[in-house]
Amino acid sequence: MPPYILTLDIGSSSVRAILFDTDARPVSGCIAQVGHNMSTSEEGSASFDPNKLLDGAINVIDQVLAAAGPRANEIAGVTTATFVSNILGVDQHGEPTTPIYTYADTRNVQAATELRSQLGPSGIRTAHDRTGCLIHTSYLPARFRWLQQSHPHLLEKTTHWLSIGEYILWKFLGQRVAGFSVASWTGLLDRRTLEWDAEWLDQLPINVEQLSPLVDIDQPLTGLLPEWGKRWPSLASAPWYPAVGDGAAANVGSGAGMVQPDPAGVQQIALTIGTTGAMRMVVDADGVEDLATPDGLWLYRVDRQRGLLGGATTEGGNVYAWARRTLQLPDSEAIESALSNNIPASHGLTVLPFIAGERAPGWDDDARASIIGFSLDTDPLELLQASIEGVCYRFALIYQRIAESQPPDTQFQIMAGGGAILQSPAWLQLMADVLNHPVHALQEHEVTARGLAIIGLEQLGIVQKTEHPVPLLGTTYHPDPQRHEIHKAAITRQVEMYVRLKKNQDL
Fold it and tell me: Which residues are registered as beta bridge partners of 298?
């Protein structure tokens, strides 16, 4: 039923547009997707051409509006999510001076190390609590310090610094704004005052005028520029809401985005494992004000009423994909059987699964994957099992920190989504055993876009922030207490090995 919400999801592998109705259900046939590839190099670059992503957004909007036909005239708003954190520079004419530097670009590792050394332990803790973000290659303080050291000419010719979501809306509507959600992922937003962080700006080679004015999700942009108003007349006067972080939208779409717990007092936690992974829960505005950012986690924003507490990992489905590509593994059915039936940690292996570096909870810029304890008798399935267990153990550490930050009697409901974990019932059961908590598998395949639809419906007053449409759920996986005890000991071994390797690295 109308009115409709047009969602634009700018991800790290594709741009997608989907039309949703008032029940946050996708409208049949009204979906479009255009893929793209990140440009990478051995030196650690990970970037995009901003105009290629802009072209992709134009393409998918064209396709969905054509598929919608007359229904396009009943679109009541456009919502956008983007991968975060990212940044690009533009000159005075609005043309890019840099590529889009993404969270995965690690050429600023030395700059991050220098900032940590400069601030010292107390300064690091203060910055973490003030912004909700750690000092790491994925955030902008280290990115701007690196630009200052390595590419000062780019700083000189850049007038404004924007995220990809800001850039696309600026091109369409001629207005430059940053939503609290995306801004909070930069490491440059004071999470309590919701202003650009003056203390960081004093130490970096940029000024506040170069960053976009800050707005909340309820401050939409209207009035497409003439070129786009003529091309998309059905969207010419529709509100275009500021972009939000893809993780924030995914939490809302997973059923874990309400501004307060359900009537039974249960807090929903969204567990998402695709190529990488994340575990997040929403806290209300009072929680954001009062909560000190837990060690190893971040505390972002959804909007002024909601914070987003959790941690993201670089490891997830990429570990499974590496094993399938590299090892002589049997078919998927045999893999599922082995993961389901093998005794936990019976292989004697300890895996630190950092094949793409580490984020939460250790945030070690130089971390690399390690496999300890293998021998001539270790077979490929055991190595896969140990690797997937290793991924789950990192999430157990994140979950422990989230739980410890909440009142002792808090009850949690874990909602699992993401293409990697949902395709493996054995992995879902393993996660339940490791966490010692039921895990509910989502049947929603587009949780980020669904979250965008709900956010748009909130702004129209059709959905309340305290009561969201219930997502479709599949199987609930209940923990096995005996297996959990085995995993607890294995987690301890993994943590001990992590500490030992880190000590050797620091010598």
Answer: 310
